[in-house]
Amino acid sequence: MGGTFDPIHTGHLVVAEEARTRFGLDEVIFMPAAVPPHKHREDISPAEDRYAMVLLATASNPCFSVSRLELDRPGPSYTIDTVRELRARLGPQAELFFLTGVDAVLEILTWHDPEALIGECRFIAAARPGYDLEQLSHRLPPRFLAAIETLVAPGVDISSSEIRRRVREGASITYLTPEAVEDYVRKRHLYAG
Questions:
Q1: Domain ranges of the chain
Q2: What are the pLDDT digits (tens) for 9-59?
Q3: Tell me: domain 2-157, CATH 3.40.50.300, correct?
Q4: Residue 24 region, left (φ>0) first, then alpha (ψ -120 to 50), else beta?
Q5: What is the DSSP letter of 130?
Q6: Model-level pTM?
Q7: Rounded CA gap, 192 and 66, in Å?
Q8: What is the pLDDT of residues 84-132, one digit of tens each?
Q9: Rounded to whole angstroms, how far apart are CA atoms 66 and 52?
Q10: From the CA atom positions of the chain, what is the Rg in Å?
Q11: How many CA atoms does the CB half-sphere of 64 hold within 13 Å?
């Protein structure tokens, strides 16, 4: 599961567990991006803080793990590089899925080497309830659609941007993110503006 995770929230965890059970995944590896190519670096929290929050949030699920692969690799966090490195580690027989939000998948044609990417793994495009999944067929060519599964997570309508806004405004984020992540955000004074 790739993303910025700034911060990780309950919606991410529900989506990961739903994908794991629905698609019969052995494991969900959370992959915080070090340098997301489509985001301005100054707009995101330090990578080590985001990594720590993902560790805290996933610790209780034995089917979840967290990788430093993108954090420890220099340069932009291109998904194709990550998938190729995972493929090299896990072998050609491993079936790889890249789980991310449907909004990100809609932009896949702007990603680094998207043609190679859809040949290396399948995508699971996660959407919030009520999201118009027809956008995928309107924006992506058939060869891309053939590599994409969709997943609507039950009752999850939480976003990291909403959590950051609530922290800036002094509003509660209780139950929007795991308690350990909420404590971390408060102790580190993240998103306070």
A1: 2-157
A2: 999 999 999 999 999 999 999 999 987 776 655 678 999 999 999 999 999
A3: no
A4: left
A5: T
A6: 0.92
A7: 26
A8: 999 999 999 999 999 999 999 999 999 999 999 999 999 999 998 888 9
A9: 10
A10: 16
A11: 22
